[in-house]
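Sample entry (489 residues):
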Amino acid sequence: MFIVMVSTECAPVAKVGGLGDVVQGLSRELSVRGHAVEVILPMYDCMRYDRIWGLTKTYSDLWVPFHDHAIHCDVYFGFADGVKCFFIQPHSQHNFFNRGLFYGNRDDAERFAFFSRAALEFMLKSGKRPDVIHCHDWQTGLVPVLLFETYQHLGMAGQRVCYTLHNLRHQGVCGAHILRQAGLSPDRLMTPERLLDHTHRDAANLMKGGIVYANFVTTVSPRYAEEILTTGQGFGLQGTLATHRGKYGGVLNGIDYNVWNPEIDSALPQPYGPDAIAGKFADKKALRDRLLLADHFRPVVAVVSRLDHQKGLPLIRHSIFYSLANRAQFVLLGSGAEASINAHFWDLKHHLNDNPDCHLEIGYDEHLSHLIYAGADILVVPSVFEPCGLSQMIAMKYGTVPVVRATGGLADTVFDANYADRPYHDRTGFTFEHNDVPGLESALGRAIGLWYRYPRYFHEIRLNGMRQDFSWNHPGGHYENIYHHIRAK
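Predicted structure, serialized as tokens:
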């Protein structure tokens, strides 16, 4: 099959969160399976150009209809860690992708509506006719709308669309004028059955458009698929998802074991694996040395996370003091988009600066994140909601036992050492149900207690996690089946 991913992120060149990892990992897996895969991205000025090989201009006369005129674009091609990528560079006074950031502008809806139209216009004019166009999140929600309403009448009637929802907290709610700018008819589309938002009067919902018009809709874990359908985590789209339930399902994300694998990880002083675990303890000492932690007999508890309300900030904060009070060391690596959140954790850092058992790193350091996953004993993920989550799967691969709130993909991947209805070899961590301090303390307390009192069983839990398969192999097969399904319709 010929598959085109239309996305606003692809690791490592354009990555804000898990979306970038998913597009890269799935594209590589599908390529390994013998499919022709290409990714279309905006050409941001803040991309990692050092991670693009062979960047060359391949198309220089792309005119994209937008507003009441057409915007001239160049299209560049390059390989991003082996993934074939096309980058659309518009030339206009709007300056869509030369902002020094990926997201966060007031005109984001306009920026990505233009990108959605440009991606389809590029496919049309360059003669690309993929079997499947795979779009991601609200930023590309207009792609299936435009394909059905406009481009199928221009020579793209044979293309099918798979649309993946990564986080329903952000839906692309905007004014109906955005549809008009993209060449669509608000009179036709602004109805409850199509793009009219469920909450904001007279507003369009771009994610809703993607759900309504796509041939199949996925989200990033089975548990999250059920939660957004039946609870407030759907943020108002529950009814739309229920209407289209016949073309909807959850596929658990994978992680790229070429990047996250302690047996081959060049960021680690000492590689290791489940059958040769000694290197992990050398990496634990290296982590302590780097962060100036005391080298004594205590477990290291870690958080590697965006500092965002979704991630359970009060419980992250509580886990710091609970760990220190229960003879554990604590390491945090993370930063937030909100200045007030960063300021709060900087204050915590200054307060704990002289504690030999604690280090808070406010920012993001890719190299350090690898060392933390390797050197820690326990990883805490107390999310309010979590569509999939990658950190708990990475932690297990590195032999670091996760303590997680049982929501979304966390519930699909971590099974409690004491209470899971699973064989012992499938029990991989500690979970808690309620988003509160007693729940966190119960799970984290059991993890620290097991490390001290029953180290042999803690070690078995560690090895159980390392032997799980969270590669892209299984989700790659699921997406193949979805693609075949929608092509046959």
